[in-house]
Structure formats: C-alpha cells, structure tokens
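Here is the promised in-class demo. Please do not try to memorize the tokens; focus on the logic of going from shape to residues.
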C-alpha cells in the first residue's frame, strides 16, 4: 500500500476530529498534535481552518458524483441496499459539513454561495436517483403538485436530523455504524415507499435488515 502524503493524512484526521468534536471545537494545533507533526508542517498545506473546510467540500462533491454514477439502478435488492448504505455512509463521513453549517457560515469559513452549492449538489444526487428509479420502473411517477425535488427535500431534512443524532450518539465501531446506516436507509425509504414497486421495496427491506444485524 502506498504511503499517504501529509496532505492526505491531514484531511483524514481533521475529518475524524471534526466529526467527533465539531468544527468549532477543533483547532489547527489539535489536528497537528493528533498527527504528531508540527503546526508549520500542517499550515504548509492548509494555512487556516477555512482552507481545510474548502478542501473537504471539494472532496465530498467529487466523491458524490463518482458514487452516484456507479449506483446500480438496475440491480438485485442486495446490490441496491448496499449501494444506498454506501451512499449515505459517504455523507455521514462528512457530517461535520452539514451539522456545523451555522459555525461554518457565521465564521466565513466558506462563502454562503459556495456552501449552498454543496447542499444543492448533495440534494441533486438524490433527485437524480429518484428520477432514474422512476425511469426504470422501480418507482411510480410522482404526481403534481408534488415532484422529485419535494420528496428529496423531505428525505433530506430527515437525514439531517439523523446526522445530528449520530453526532450525539457516536457508533462504537464500524459494525455499529453500518447498523445505524441500514436503519437510517430503512426509515428514509419508508418516506417514499408508496412510490416504490411493492415487491422490490419488500426485498430491499429484507436486505437492509440483514445489513443491520
């Protein structure tokens, strides 16, 4: 395995600390201490916390596009369930960008327009999935006055609330985190269950329950 660069290690460790303690509670010095490197070594790559946040936003947006492009719309329920857990797990890994939005914006860590682009890109990821599922016949078309954007908005607020709860009750290990993710996907899909093909939904439910064990 190739050795990770200092920049990669800084991004990984800062994400872990931001997730656990919140962006507001973590300083550049604490990140360098956790990595056992000098503050000067860290600031050579990221001069301030705002630079770190901007780098994380760019990384999330890029990874989201990759994740959604390979999402198996036409697949068996097992692949579909695992893909959804992976997709939501990605946003969970960057939850500090969402639950820390007030701190990020009030302290000008990123411009409001740049941050809004992140939220829009994240929501558009899920809107795209709804439309693809509808096109392939796994979901029935959403009838006016409702639309895919409104459905995703409802799901988004539930997901944001779940991330806030997770911030308080951190999973003890990867297994516990996977169970939390599978349970969250079950609740999220239930919001749209009346649009999803009944047999496919039942099969996905069964697979998610297996993942949650």
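The designed amino acids, position by position:
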């Amino acid at each position: 395995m190739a050795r990770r660069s200092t920049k990669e290690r800084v991004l990984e460790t800062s994400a872990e600390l931001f997730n656990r303690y919140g962006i507001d509670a973590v300083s550049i010095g604490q990140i360098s201490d956790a990595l056992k490197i000098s503050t000067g070594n860290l600031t050579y790559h990221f001069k301030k916390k705002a630079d770190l946040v901007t780098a994380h936003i760019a990384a999330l947006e890029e990874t989201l596009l990759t994740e959604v492009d390979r999402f198996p719309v036409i697949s068996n329920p097992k692949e579909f369930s695992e893909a959804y857990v992976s997709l939501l797990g990605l946003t969970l890994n960057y939850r500090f960008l969402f639950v820390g939005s007030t701190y990020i914006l009030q302290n000008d860590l990123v411009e409001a327009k740049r941050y809004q682009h992140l939220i829009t890109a994240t929501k558009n990821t899920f809107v795209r999935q709804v439309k693809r599922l509808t096109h392939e016949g796994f979901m029935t078309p959403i009838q006016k006055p409702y639309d895919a954007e409104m459905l995703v908005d409802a799901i988004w607020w539930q997901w944001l609330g779940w991330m806030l709860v997770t911030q308080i009750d951190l999973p003890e290990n990867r297994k516990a985190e996977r169970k939390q993710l599978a349970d969250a996907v079950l609740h999220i899909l239930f919001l749209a269950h009346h649009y999803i093909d009944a047999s496919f939904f039942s099969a996905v439910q069964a697979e998610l329950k297996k993942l949650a064990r």
